[in-house]
């Protein structure tokens, strides 16, 4: 390993980012090497195992780093920040997908007025509204873990990494958050 390559390997992520913003290509290469595979795995898990989409999201994220370096606060942990950005990119993708789904459902609804189909949709809307209300009643910490685990489908290990907390803390928050939600939403028979 050359001296220069070793020099960059020994730097913190935050130091590499600062060097990258000053135009040091090797610093960018090192950050890419450290995070591209992990981010690809994260996106693959979050984006329905779509390899092409996962690759595109990795490239988009690194392009953001190059084009808008000011979005990163060097006083924060780069790892936590980059996974938070990745998580937010996935949330935006879910919203886009949900919007498409709503448009398709609306179109289908206008063409299909079967009573049971309408009742299922109405119950789904009430459930979603009730869940959102209950999520707003639990602490921010429990809500974050609940959403990442049960809505976004992340594994406890991934959640710990994104939020920068221990695996035990994630498990505890997941348990108590879910327990509180289940107690408040008994009318939906979620325990069965």
What does this entry show, briefly?
By secondary structure, the protein is mainly alpha-helical. It has helices at residues 3-9, 13-21, 25-46, 51-67, 78-111, 115-137, 140-151, 156-163, 167-184.
Describe this structure in words.
- It is a single chain.
- The chain is globular.
- The protein contains 9 helices and no strands.
- By secondary structure, the protein is mainly alpha-helical.
- 78% of the residues lie in helices and 0% in strands.
- The chain folds into 2 domains: 1-112, Rna Polymerase Sigma Factor, Chain: A; 113-192, Winged helix-like DNA-binding domain superfamily/Winged helix DNA-binding domain (Arc Repressor Mutant, subunit A, Orthogonal Bundle).
- The N and C termini lie far apart (58 Å).
What is the tally of beta strands? 0
Distance between the termini: 58 Å
Tell me the number of helical segments per DSSP (H or I, 4 or more residues long).
Answer: 9
What would CATH call the homologous superfamily of the largest domain? Answer: RNA polymerase sigma factor, region 2, helix turn helix motif
Number of domains: 2
Fraction in helix: over 70%
Based on CA atoms alone, the radius of gyration comes out at: 21 Å
Major sheet attributes: none
Shape: globular
Give the mean pLDDT: 82
Run of helices and strands:
HHHHHHHHH
Architecture (CATH level 2) name of the largest domain: Orthogonal Bundle
The CATH topology of the largest domain corresponds to: Rna Polymerase Sigma Factor, Chain: A
What is the CATH class name of the largest domain? Mainly Alpha
| Overall SS class | mainly alpha
pLDDT < 50 runs, ≥5 residues: none
